[in-house]
Amino acid sequence: MKKISLTQYLVEQQREHGRIPGQLRLLIEVVARACKHIAIAVNKGELGGVLGSAASENVQGEVQKKLDIISNEVLIEANEWGGHLAAMASEEMDSIHVVPNRYPQGEYLLLYDPLDGSSNIDVNVSIGTIFSVLRKVGHQHGVSEEDFLQPGRFQAAAGYCIYGPQTQLVLTVGNGVAIFTLDREMGSWVLTAENMRIPEDTKEFAINMSNLRHWAPPMRRYIDECLAGSPGPRGKDFNMRWVASMVADVHRILCRGGVFAYPWDARDPDKPGKLRLLYEANPMAFLVEQAGGAATNGRQRILDLMPGKLHERVSVVLGSKHEVERITAYHLEEKAQAAKA
Ligand code: P6P
User: Is the CB of 245 under 6 A from ligand 1?
Assistant: First the structure.
C-alpha cells in the first residue's frame, strides 16, 4: 500500500475539499512535529530523567509532572515563530500565551492539554496530547482570553497524539477522522486509517466506578442497568474499561466503539465535572461526532456549550451514539420530573 504522509493528506484535503488553508496546514504540521518531539521524551522515560513530579502545581491545583512542563514548552516553542497563531492556551498555563511581538501573528488559536493522563506517566501506561484549533474571530488588533471562549462547533481542527504501543496522531478538519502512525525509522507520520466510524451500539462502558456512590441518579441508573447484564433491562452483558487516560479511552472507542463518561459527582457539587471543556471535551467531541458518535454533558451537545472561562470544567458522555442518547435521555427525564415536582 502506497504510504501517504501527513503532508500529502493535508495537501489533498485542501485540493479536494478546500478545508485547509496554508496557515492551518502549517499549524497542523507544526503540532504534529511537536508531538514527535514529545513522543521521544515520553519514550525515554527514566533514561531521559523526565519521570516524576516537578516542584510545581498547575492552574487546576494539580501537581505537575516533569513531562507536563516539558510537553507544554515543546508546543510553545514549536508554534511561536510560524506566523499561523495569534495565541495559545494550555491546561498547564494560568492565562493565554500571546505570540511575542518579535513574531508575526496569525489568525488561529491553539488550545491543548500537552500531556493528558499524567497519573499514568510514571507507570508506563498510554498518555497523550490533545489539541483544538479555533479561528480568531473579529479583526480587532490584539488577542485576549475572550477570543478563546467559543463553542466547540467553531473548531477548525482537533486531534490528539497517543503515546502507546504505537505513536499515533488522530486528526479531523471537519471532513472525517484520519489516523497517522509514526514511522520511527523515517521519522514521519503515515496515514494508516481514515473515515473512522464509531459503531452506534456497544457493550463496553468506560467510567471510574469508584465514584459510583457520588453520581446523580440518571448516571447511576444507566450503569446499574449495564451491570444487571442480560437478565436486566438491557438484555445483554456489558464489559468495562477504564485507563484513566482520556486519550487512551477515547482512542479505543474510536477504533471499536464504547461509551465514556466522566459525569458530575457529589464530591464537589459546584464543579460540573472533572474534564476541561475547551481543550479536552471540545476536541474529543469534534472527533467523536466526525466519526459518527455523539458527545453531550448529559443534557446538551458539548459542541454547543458556550464557555464562560478558559479552564471551565464539564461533565462528559461520549462515544457510541445510541448509548450517549440513552444516558442523555435519562438525564433529561430526571430534569423534566424535577420541573414537575
Ligand atoms: P480519574 C487524566 O488526569 C484525566 O484528566 C483524563 O485523562 C482521565 O479520563 C481522567 O482524568 C481520569 O480521572 O479520577 O479516574 O483519575
Answer: yes
